[in-house]
Write a structure and sequence with these properties.
homodimer, mainly alpha, Arc Repressor Mutant, subunit A, DNA-binding
Chain lengths: ~180, ~180
Amino acid sequence: MPQKVMDRRVERTRRSLQNALGQLIMEKGFEKITVQDVIDRANVGRSTFYAHFESLDQLLLSGFEPLRAQFEDFLSGTEYDNESPWALSLTMFQQVQKQQGGYITLTHVQKYLYGYLLDHLKTALPKRNKNIPPELLAHYVASSFIALMTWWIDNNYPFPAEKMNELFRQLVEPGTLAIMMGE
Amino acid sequence: MPQKVMDRRVERTRRSLQNALGQLIMEKGFEKITVQDVIDRANVGRSTFYAHFESLDQLLLSGFEPLRAQFEDFLSGTEYDNESPWALSLTMFQQVQKQQGGYITLTHVQKYLYGYLLDHLKTALPKRNKNIPPELLAHYVASSFIALMTWWIDNNYPFPAEKMNELFRQLVEPGTLAIMMGE
DNA sequence: TATGTTTCTGAACATCGTGTTCGGTTATAC
DNA sequence: GTATAACCGAACACGATGTTCAGAAACATA
């Protein structure tokens, strides 16, 4: 939970680090980035970095915080039913699209979104089925979502969020319905 | 291409390193493994490791070589048609199952299999479609495959390969057909 | 069994990234 | 204007990487 009033310097430092990380992820991918890279780009002292974050992973996570809060809100105000997975995926497409040019990157999506969707699906999907284990079904749906989202971001958002969600549903729903009914 | 006759010591060293890596992947995951871990486990000198492989990635890749060769064979003897993607996926399920207890791990699957399937799909799938970009479709199918494969290995091969491939097809085919026909 | 060749060993070394510490400097809030 | 909080940056210990080299061991051959 953020302080009511935050020292300008703190805000400036954190923003700067987040932006630097975002840029570097685009340039060379998260795995190849060092703390040195980030603090050089952000013009921040080494000790300052560690005063704010205990690792690059923490810094990465901090940039995802705004979206995380939105999804929490969304989920706490939603009933679980047959439509809720599609509503959640639509929200995710929309929110990510809105962040274009911000510091939300593919790395954020792949690292955090998958888990959110999976958790939701595990409770939203029917629990018992003789044709397929429910966790497998959840994995399949969540993976498919991430695949579409990854392609979408990689290709620079060629379609609007609504169209992506439609594609997602058209691809995934028929098979899942078929397998739940039995062949 | 392996030598006709290989010095016993070379064979022993390489096997030992591959096995050590396989064990360590199961124990703590590929990302957390260091060269030191591997050579300690394998009882091999530091300089020996670097005489054989130039990195952990190379060592990992070397263990996948047998499977890679099989898939090359399979693909070079197969016509591209509507059935070939399912035949390839079945082969992959079967070959991975056969390697149970060998040094093929989840890491191998996720790092190499995806690329193989994707390449095949890009040529095997119909090239033009007004409803969905072909590369997106290929990504979706390949990701779904990896999702099922991952679950299967994670849960210790609860079903035979044939059943997994059937599930894969039942989940993926209806949606892809529907979207190719137009809604 | 003797010989020449290949492989393995292990210690030493340079290099790089991490995470911490601390005395000194600067910006901010009031 | 002053007390306080944040930032700086140099120094340090640590651990992993990748290379080098001289000596020991295993191998193929005859």
